[in-house]
Amino acid sequence: MMVFIETLGCSRNQVDSEIMLGKLVAAGHQRVDDPAKARVIIVNTCGFISTAADEAVDVILEMARFKEEGDCQKLVATGCLAQRYKDDPGLLASLPEVDAFLGTAACDQIVDVVEDRQPTPLTLFPDPNQRGFQDLAIDRELISNGFAYIKVSEGCNRHCTYCIIPKLRGTQRSRPLADIITEAASLVKKGVKEIILTAENTTDYGQDLVADPIGFDNVLSSLAKKLAIQDKNVWIRFLYTHPKTLGAGIIKTVQSHDNLCSYYDVPVQHAASTMLKRMGRPYTREDLIDLFKLIRELDPEASLRTTLIVGFPGETKEEFEILKDFIHQVRFDHLGVFTYSDSDDLKSHGFKDHVPEEIAEERHDILMAAQAKISEQVNERHVGKIYPVFVEENPEQGVYIGRTQFQAPEVDGMTFIYSEGLEIGTIVHVRITDAYEYDIAGEIA
Ligand code: SF4
Predict the structure, then answer these.
(1) CA 32 / ligand 1 centre spacing (Å)
(2) What is the per-residue burial (b if ≥16 Cβ within 10 Å, else e) of 73-95?
């Protein structure tokens, strides 16, 4: 059957889509890029925050049109929106176009669903904690080109008061290290040049694999070393490290291997210690200042990324001022800001002094405006230097777009290369000549 999949949300969800596609292709079905030609359409949804949930419903309704205007005979909704609202008959009933709702742990049953071995309408919500790890015998069908995400663990053991993910994905389960190494090798054989390790908290990896909770960060370090040595031409990047478990051991490992990207994605969410406490984040402003100082001492080439939430219940002007000062003090290379997204299934919903949306938006804009200036100044430091750049696109004659080790895909700025005759998917050395708010540009060195 012709199958089309639309993936929403985060890198973990993209891996789930690739796993489902891999199973379907292994079962003889064909992946198509045009939903109008698909007999089965799968929407792998995100439901993390209300705007993501709204987007997921819009995309489902958009895809449902192909039941009238295309070849679609079955519409399947998988992922976090389905899981989050599994007990909400209102939402599921409001989408009669959907033939099957599959929760986050039901990906493995996608072939049965597509091949009508399960009667529809169907809802499948196995316990997220029962979800097994990826079957390495079946290759994933990659959605991105040249780089690939590897999920090192499922779920999360933390309890941030604004977050629903532990309910949607279960407690943390780390994949066996050998499985990750094996998968990385098979991805590299497929021509992947960059492997991006992802999880809810990548640096919590291994907590459940070792008896000695103190030494668990050695697990991630040894994983990183093994991946770095396995193929020195392949870049290895971590996303979603946690400030509490990103330690000197991992930083030194990264610093000592050229193909481990000196790229530290550390979502801190806020910087006012009183606010961090209400968010359920187990660190203080001082801890964060010390951490970013440590990273820069141990890895002077470090590039820092973070994400912040503004407008969390009770956020005072003073707490916001602390956050503003903090980004001026740390000077992140890359920074994303979200406004708090309320929902009655969150612990934070019950907190008092919810911040009006317009105030939250105003604070979002103030931080983004400040960061735009910081980002341009930070980018200036690259001018005159030469970096390896992974060539990804050729939008027009004489212009290529790529990324350096300090630019992650899909979230950070890019590198423009003015040249002719470059090959997409290769790594070239570029002398940076110009710096902009988010992007940089250069010529072949
Ligand atoms: S660490 Fe916090 S924000 Fe991240 S997935 Fe876990 S509970 Fe959610």
Answers:
(1) 34
(2) ebbbbbbbbbbbbbeeeebbeeb
Residue nearest atom 8 of ligand 1, based on CA coordinates: 163
Mean pLDDT of the chain: 95
* Residue 245 to residue 398: CA distance in whole angstroms: 44
Protein residue whose Cα sits closest to atom 1 of ligand 1: 158
Q: For residue 219, is pLDDT > 70?
A: yes
Whose tokens are 């969150």? That residue is: 346
Residue (of 191, 178, 266) closest to 223 by Cα position: 178
Longest dimension (CA), the chain: 63
Average pLDDT for 174-189 = 95
Pairing status of strand 173-174 against strand 153-154: antiparallel
Closest residue by Cα to residue 104 from 72, 80, 68, 84 = 80
Q: 246 alpha carbon to ligand 1 midpoint, in Å? A: 15
The dihedral built from the CA positions of residue 365, 369, 370 and 374, taken in this order, carries a sign that is positive
In Å, how far from its chain's centre is CA 185? 21
Residues of the chain with pLDDT > 90, as a percent, come to 91
In the sheet that 235-238 helps form, which strands lie side by side, from edge to edge? 147-151, 194-198, 235-238
| Amino acid occupying residue 286 | E
The predicted-structure confidence for 151-176, as pLDDT tens digits, reads as follows 999 999 999 999 999 999 999 999 99
* For residues 138-150, average pLDDT: 94
Whether 217 has a pLDDT exceeding 90, the answer reads: no
Q: Is the CB of 217 under 6 A from ligand 1?
A: no
The answer to whether 425 and 191 have CB atoms below 8 angstroms apart is yes
Most ligand 1 atoms within 8 A of CB, residue of 49, 165, 312 to mutate: 165
Distance CA 388, CA 380 (A): 17
Amino acid at 428: V
DSSP 147-215: EEEEE-EES-----TT--HHHHH-S-EEPPHHHHHHHHHHHHHTT--EEEEE-SSGGGTTTTT-S-GGG
In single-letter form, the type of residue at position 213 comes to P
Tell me the two tokens of residue 274: 């009183």
**DSSP bridge pairs for 76:** 42, 100
pLDDT tens for 90-121 read 877 899 999 999 999 999 999 999 998 877 77
* Structural domains of the chain, ranges and CATH numbers in brackets: 2-130 (3.40.50.12160), 147-380 (3.80.30.20), 386-444 (2.40.50.140)
Give the position, in ligand 1's atom list, of the atom nearest the Cα of 240.
Answer: 4
